[in-house]
Amino acid sequence: MPGNFTYRSLVFGALMSLAINMFFAYARLAMATAGMSSDYITAGAVFLFFVLVAFINPLLKLAKYSWGFNRSELIVIYAMMIIGSAIPTWGFTGNLIAMLPNIYYYATPENNWSELLHPYVKEWMVPQDAEAIKYFFEGLPKGQRIPWEHWAVPLAAWISFILSIYLMMITIMSIIRRQWVDYDRLTFPLLQLPIDMTEEGKDGSIVSPFLKNPLMWIGFALPFFLFSTSALNHYFPFIPAVQLRNSISLFNNALNLATNVNFVALGLAYFLALDVGLSIWLFHLLTKAQITTENILGYSLVGRTDLFMEGSMSVSYQGMGAMLVLVLYGLWNSRGYLRQVWRKAFYNEGDLDDSQEILSYRTAIIVLGLSSVYATGWLTLSGVPFLISLFFLFIAFCVFYGLTRIVAEGGLGFARAQMTAQPFVIHSVGTEAIGPAGLVSLGMTFSWAGDLRTMIMASAINSMKLADVGQVRGRPMFWAIMLSIIVGLGGSVWMVVWMGYTYGAINLDWWFYNSFGAIIHGDTAYKIANPSHPWRDFAEVGPRFLYAGVGAGIMGMLMYARHHFLWWPVHYLGFPIGATLTITWSWFSIFVGWILKALIIKYGGVTLYRNFRPLFLGFILGHIFVSGFWVVFDYITGETGNRIPIF
User: pLDDT of 18-40, one tens digit each?
Assistant: First the structure.
């Protein structure tokens, strides 16, 4: 029956979430290996889940069949794992922890942070003890303990805030789930692999049918062998490594196109609708053409490029305009459904049945409202003016929502927005309206709304879709999600702080422990020292928002054509993300996967397409497993820097 939860699946899922947040965080930040918890593909979860399905579960069933996990239990476990994967490294804690003391440790007379930043830092947001900060970056003297008392208040403040953000994400997805899953019928390509892995065979079968398919193992073996040559070359330089990262240059090097072979992207492309796959690689090439033309002509918008903009400044603003239209147009098209949700929630009218949702619609709306109030109040107390806090949260959640839609429909294991919410908000209202304290606080929001490669919102909707397959949707799923978040946050925070004090942050991953915070705070200091006003600086700001309008207009036309003309060949999904680094590195593999699918369907039809599914699932699994395998192997041998990239 729905809601088939067991205590052991919850416990095992929580343990796996803890492992992802501790071991894979350690592997990435201390061992400099692959980012197994860095992207929407949730590679660490896939790796551990494969170990569970292929080895642990068959052994349990072999000992006693009832000891093995059934499909519903496996789906609960995997759902908790992908939730946990959205927390460490680029999800939140890897970005946040070192950034906090960084504002004091890297202050120098040259950057003048002591005057520009320090007076506006709220004491409850950042550790204040100079010795605790020094030892975090330089390592504890022998015999001393970690000074958790100096971290307690800031960590409690930030964890309470991020929990409110996570609740907003989860409740929004619980409200929109039926629209996306039942009405829009999104394909959720990222879930094809775990769905097949949890498939049960005939009664008494110990091994999943997925693992018995020889075509899957052929697909698995190819990336495993090719990427292992690189890993072996790290240990034994005389073994040649197969080069899978290449590029081509055109127009006297004015245009460079990466032609990387990424088996995860190639495999996922096979499960995309052909018009969606076409959209992703085509808009990347069109965006590249725009950037190349700008470079050849020497054209660029006036002003300083903001952090985490992708492509040229004009392209970044186009992407933001397109993203906002993607969200607002989509919500407008869902207005009838959302009215039904409202009537069901507060008047108990209509035919919608929310009994098997993770939260009733009434509860979801109330929790969304309360968590929104808390997040807005928190930002206001941190120094951001109230109205600007509301504006910022709205733009940030438009980006979150749009990316989640792109991941759910486009199956992108690697995705980013072309522009973040912070510069859009700052240039809309000007730095003078925000004030120095608000700018310092907005800078720190880059930890959860900036260099974003994964997030809870996408994992939440994927978990809800998975629950449909295993018929485990219902109230317990919400508590499984929250348990995974709490365990994951606790383990990840502890691990990132522990590594800093044990090894010295200056000796660990330079981006997370040092550069990220220095870049953020340096940018904030620049904005405080160079105040702006949208009308006074209209000559600089105006053209940027003109390009945002151009992007919005193009996106609106693309979405209108898609919804009104059956003959329209190109999906709109690739336009808001065409210039991002994640697409730059994966477009070629998506193109190859798209070509292969088109040829298979053209000459073999749906039957041949289905027959080849295991091969492409094997590509995805083999690429992820070879990376995870060498992470574990390197941990055992004590080796560092042997990175088999997932992205």
Answer: 999 999 999 999 999 988 888 99
